[in-house]
Amino acid sequence: MEWPSVEFDNRHPADVADHLENVGPEEQLKILQESPPEEAAEYVVEMERHDREDLLSRLSGTFVADILSEMSPDDAADILDDLDREQRSEIFKHIDRKDAALINDLLKFDPDSAGGVMNTEILVLDRKLTVDQAVSLIRKGAEDIEVPYYAYVVDEYRHLKGVLSLRDLMLARSGTRLQDLLHDQHLIYVAYNEDKEEVAKLIGRYDLLALPVVDLEQRILGIVTVDDVIDIIQEEASEDLQTMVGAGSDETIDSPWQYSVKKRAPWLVMNLFTSAVSAWVVHLFEGTIAQMSVLAVLMPIVANQAGNTGQQSLAVMIRQLALERFDRRKVWSAVLREARIGLLNGIGLSFLVFCAIFMWTDNLTLSLVVGIALGGDMLLGAVAGASIPLVLKEMGRDPAQASSIFLTMLTDSAGFFFFLGMATFIFT
Q: pLDDT (tens digit, 9 = 90+) per residue, 185-242?
């Protein structure tokens, strides 16, 4: 995609960010320097994390500060959080004291919490204001705050007392006080220390455009908007997909290769050890395999089918944990559901494999051994695939973290042991 180096007036910031990620350092610097600060800020926000870090590391603290000053505090905090302490300190020297205070407050929150993703540029309204006064304040502050989907009504201590939509305000009778419009509301809000996944679930469950974030005394701190939630959902989905197989949760094709090696190598070493367990199980039955070489041909059938069964259960369970609040009774009953599915599929496929092997070898006993081993391992795969994320969750770990590696070890080792163990018992 060939674009002029600086003519981006009609381009969406996300498209310009893509262009910046694919040009050299000198071209990147030229584009940013020749763009208005507010536009340069939008471009930087849309860039991939690793490309953005690399770009900002080559810019002066003054220049970066000018760009960050044009961003909303939550975006600026997210970007600064990725930089090393020395560079962050240099940038803060050149940021306006008020902006720096807002950003510093946000940096104190866990980046994976509601406080870490909220926007503090909001307009709160005293409950004693009239509708006319509220509308006037919204009009005056609309350009400097997050899009005002809702009006957040507070008392004199900034405690959240109610939420009114703009429609409520537009239809209310002139002169009516805001507190008279609230009635007995069931307030939906989230504490600042709640996980950002929970924020996404609440916004999705109640079809909200924004969700207020409060402190432990129910004083409003900021809001999380639906566009933030879309980013959270996309991020969590990609993290789950990548961590299942031991890749870095935030890796992209633009990540430095050294970073990817560092993230993946430990899990590859772990996979080496789990594979060694399966190899050791096969070694235990070396004599049986030597007597019946056909067993070596049939082993992958048992292991692969069980592994695939387990991956299906694993994917369903991780999706469930990502979409709903963790409920021990519900999720463990889901394990029994997966066990039933694994059992029924195992019976059906075992019969097909039994028939196929009997037609091929004309050996009834061997066919039975393979069929029974296949069915048993598929049942194990279904139970293990559903259980591993729950065990990791109970341990306080990411349910998706390398779960595929642990699942493969169980299905391969148990499948080989069960299959070769039966064959050894019957044929020797």
A: 889 999 999 988 888 888 888 888 899 999 999 999 999 988 888 877 777 767 776 7
Same domain, 206 and 261: no
CA distance 127 to 282: 73
pTM, rounded to two decimals: 0.67
> Beta 150-154 vs 124-126: how paired, if at all?
parallel
As separate numbers, helices (DSSP H) first and strands (DSSP E) second, the chain gives: 20, 6
Do residue 292 and residue 395 come from a single domain?
yes
Three-state secondary structure call for residue 386: helix
Domain span at residue 218 reads 124-225
At 117, give phi and psi (nearest 5°). Answer: -115, 0
Domain total of the chain: 3
Which helix (H) or strand (E) segment holds residue 152: the answer is strand 150-154
Amino acid at 102: L
CATH number at residue 352: 1.10.357.20
Q: State how beta strands 220-225 and 210-214 pair.
A: antiparallel
Whether residues 94 and 146 share a domain: the answer is no
